[in-house]
């Protein structure tokens, strides 16, 4: 196994990496700096766009657009020149709440969770799905910081966590209707003193989760057993994604300054990592269909 830095870019709050096989690029966001970025396989930055509000998560898109994005309070499509075309602004709540982690399901719909950061005692966040026709559907409520959104290879399981709760959940997911089954506990990160952030799956159905407070990536079996942890050279890993020509590189965004509790003076904090030699391959992310 080898862990190297990918690009020389140091992000404040790096999140939502997604490999774009159409171009051979890795896209990601810097939420705190309101940016979407992309780099080629050599780590050379190819795109860098700055917006008027945070971008919580992104996914690939088609139909003449490059990306779908969950901005702080709305969904939008992103053109190749960076222009953002708003789609819908669902009622996610007022005050200190914004969109956060997100992924497309295997049918080309885009899910994004919300998070609250104003210290409210009540759990006001949840998960929304951007439908193919452009409407938005609320899927889950009663959360504070929705994270770890990803799908099993077959698409019949949705993984999701509330970072502040510390438990990665799973839900039966109907690929055709998008209906959720009952909430199930999948892996309790509290048992290892960790908090889950972003996550992805590999071709064998194992879940790879950023253990943000432990400076590790955790690999969890489809049955919910912790198989291994990987120590990282910088603090606060935020989100992993498989990519590269053979989908065998695990890219990991990290955090230098979240604007809240997570802040590091490590000289390489916020840099992207590229991990190879894991003996695992990822699955191409689904593309949002308008």
TrEMBL record:
Gene3D superfamilies: TolB, C-terminal domain (2.120.10.30). Keywords: Hydrolase. Its EC number is 3.1.1.99. Pfam families: SGL (PF08450). InterPro entries: 6-blade_b-propeller_TolB-like, SGL, SMP-30. It comes from the Bacteria. Residues 13-255 form the SMP-30/Gluconolactonase/LRE-like region domain. It is an enzyme of class 3 (hydrolase). The keyword Hydrolase applies. One of its GO terms (molecular function) is hydrolase activity. Belongs to the SMP-30/CGR1 family. PANTHER family: REGUCALCIN. This is SMP-30/gluconolactonase/LRE family protein. It comes from Novosphingobium clariflavum.
């Amino acid at each position: 196994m080898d862990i190297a830095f990918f690009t020389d870019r140091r992000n404040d709050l790096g999140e939502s990496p997604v490999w774009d096989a159409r171009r051979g690029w890795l896209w990601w966001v810097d939420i705190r700096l309101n940016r979407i970025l992309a780099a080629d396989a050599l780590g050379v930055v190819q795109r860098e766009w700055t917006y008027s509000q945070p971008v919580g998560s992104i996914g690939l898109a088609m139909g003449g657009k490059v990306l779908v994005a969950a901005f702080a309070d709305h969904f939008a499509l992103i053109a190749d020149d960076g222009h953002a075309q708003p789609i819908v602004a669902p009622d996610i709540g007022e005050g200190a709440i914004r969109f956060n982690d997100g992924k497309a399901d295997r049918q080309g719909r885009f899910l994004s969770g919300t998070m609250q950061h104003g210290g409210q005692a009540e759990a006001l966040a949840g998960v929304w799905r951007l439908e193919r026709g452009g409407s938005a559907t609320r899927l889950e409520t009663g959360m504070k910081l929705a994270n770890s959104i990803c799908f099993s290879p077959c698409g019949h399981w949705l993984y999701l966590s509330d970072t502040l709760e510390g438990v990665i959940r799973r839900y039966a997911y109907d690929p055709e209707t998008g209906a959720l089954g009952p909430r199930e506990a999948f892996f309790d990160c509290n048992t290892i003193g960790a908090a889950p952030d972003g996550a992805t799956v590999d071709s064998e159905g194992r879940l790879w989760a950023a253990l943000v407070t432990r400076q590790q990536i955790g690999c969890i079996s489809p049955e919910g057993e912790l198989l291994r942890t990987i120590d990282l050279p910088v603090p606060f890993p935020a989100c992993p994604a498989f990519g590269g020509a053979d989908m065998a590189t695990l890219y990991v965004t990290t955090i230098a300054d979240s604007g809240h509790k997570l802040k590091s003076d490590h000289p390489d904090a916020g840099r992207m990592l590229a991990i190879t030699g894991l003996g695992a391959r990822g699955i191409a992310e689904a593309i949002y269909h308008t």
